[in-house]
Amino acid sequence: MLHQFPPEFRGGTEVCVETLATEQQRRGDSVLVVAGSGVRDREGVVRRERVGGLDVARVLRRPGENFSMDDRHERVAAQVVEAIAAFRPDVVHVHHLQNLSADLGARLSAAGLPVVATLHDFLLVCARFFLLRPDGSSCAEAFPLPALPRCVDCTLPDFPAGRAALEHETRAKQATAAAEAGALRLAIAPSAVVRSRWLRSGLFPPEKLVLLPHPAPRPAAAPAPARDRRDGRLVLATWGHLAPAKGLLDVLAAMRLLRDPRVALVALGEPVDAAHAEELLDAAEGLDVTFRGRYAPADLPALRGEADLAVFPSRAEETFGLVVAEARALGFPVAVSDRGALPERVGAAGAVLPAADPPLWAHLFQALLADPRPLAEWAAGAGADLLAPDAHARAVADLYARVT
After folding, report:
1. What are phi and psi of 292, to 5 degrees?
2. Do 234-380 and 12-215+388-403 have the same topology in CATH?
3. Distance from C-alpha of 276 to C-alpha of 268, rounded to nearest angstrom
4. pTM exceeds 0.85, yes or no
5. C-alpha distances in angstroms, 307 versus 214, 240, 290, 331?
6. Do the Cβ atoms of 290 and 263 come closer than 8 Å?
7. Could you tell me the CATH superfamily of domain 12-215+388-403?
8. Angle between helices 358-370 and 248-258 (to 10 degrees)
9. Domain boundaries in the chain?
10. pLDDT 10s digits, 312-346
11. Which CATH class is domain 234-380?
12. What is the pLDDT of residue 241?
């Protein structure tokens, strides 16, 4: 169960669910993906679809059933519980409840179903998902959340009903979070940093909180051979949703500081809005930068033959960093920021640099131009210690066995 599913949207959570569900079917399990949607429908129907060989029940909310601080929706929740009960599962695996209803874990548990959750982000306690405030400061050390007035001050600019109503919803979110955490048989944290933060929340005892990284998605095709670097250039690649928090402006600033025409960048993905698209274009002016826009997983294997280093300079408190695992599975050396779980994903495959520090990123690029040998060393370690999808599915099956 999750908030959206391809082809409507493909982000890290969606890729994780698609990968796991596909492996579970290969193991002989019966799988139903229950997904929310960004689409609104006057009737609020449940659409049954077939997506990539998976059965999907896509639950459409009605106009007006929009995201709020305490995101519970009685009608939507009843639809979801009915669809799941008709499927008669042995286990319900919750991945994300936005676009559905924030109390579904407790409702399904009350219906007698064992519920496991993967904690892809902090939506259970943070309306901004990743503990990142609008001013760029982090609430990573501010548990327990949600809290008054901290959360109210953070979200009030985006809450038109006013402070009193937001305070009421924040108190309700506190109760919902406690009930959801209590209803889960197990909660899966995809990184050590996420597990440690949830332990500080007070919502989960250590024995209920399991560390299990996401798998590296299987490449859609064999990666192209590494780019021939005899031209002396350093070609960078990045992909994903081009949001301001992903830090691409920092890489562009580093390229501008370096002022070396041998450094180029290929970026795949779409900016989240027109304003950020304009920022990126302005920052890239005069640099060797190619924006390719929307992409599919099938576009990535060929990228290995075009670029030398995958860069993910996020300013956000990333909870896993699926694009890093994706890059390593393609044989890329990687450079990441030091935010959240990203350093856990690097291993021997690359470098970790401070977030929001273009001079240090420029120094790395300059060093690799002068001596590219680390690129080969990092690429040699790219495939080490990655969790394969089949091994991940076996580990999840073992966790299901514990709760049933």
Report:
1. -100, -10
2. yes
3. 15
4. yes
5. 25, 16, 12, 11
6. no
7. Glycogen Phosphorylase B; (3.40.50.2000)
8. 60
9. 12-215+388-403, 234-380
10. 999 988 999 999 999 999 999 999 999 999 999 99
11. alpha beta
12. 87
